[in-house]
Design goal:
By secondary structure, the chain is an alpha+beta fold. The chain has one domain: CBS-domain, CATH 3.10.580. 39% of the residues lie in helices and 22% in strands. Strand 5 and strand 6 form a beta hairpin. Helix 4 packs parallel to helix 6.
Length: 138
């Protein structure tokens, strides 16, 4: 199954200059755990709810004045639209990642999550293996 068939296409994005509080509010409003960070049409990073907690709140950063660029993961691991679901599972396992931006011609076109794969893959054993790999301490 191709990613374009199962990925989330309605994207909520942040700019690197938005505050952590603004990004967190978007994430809460849209019930998402990862927000791609874009500059124009270029993906420059991703920020997760965990990034905000660990890299900002736990370190005492002012979430209203600190930009997302200070806590985001720059140069994120991505998937290509033409990839098969099994290839994406391998990437997720290898890098212990639950969500990946999906690209076409170097442009962000969607997000694929382990949950998307779990709902659509017939190979339950593969999804269970990926979840086990992702959940292992690094």
């Amino acid at each position: 199954m191709r990613l374009s068939d199962i990925m989330t296409k309605e994207l909520v994005t942040c700019s690197p200059n938005e505050s952590i509080a603004q990004a967190a509010q978007k994430m809460q409003d849209c019930n998402i755990g990862l927000c791609p960070v874009v500059e124009g049409d270029r993906l420059v990073g991703v920020v997760t709810d965990r990034d905000i907690t660990i890299r900002a709140v736990a370190k005492g950063k002012d979430v209203k004045s600190t930009n997302i660029s200070e806590v985001m993961t720059a140069d994120p691991i991505t998937a290509e639209e033409a990839m098969e679901a099994e290839e994406v599972c391998e990437i997720m396992s290898e890098h212990q990642i639950r969500r990946l931006p999906v690209m076409r011609d170097n442009k962000l076109i969607g997000i694929i999550a382990l949950a998307d794969l779990a709902l659509d893959l017939e190979e339950e054993e593969l999804v269970a293996e990926v979840l086990t790999d992702i959940s292992q301490p690094a």
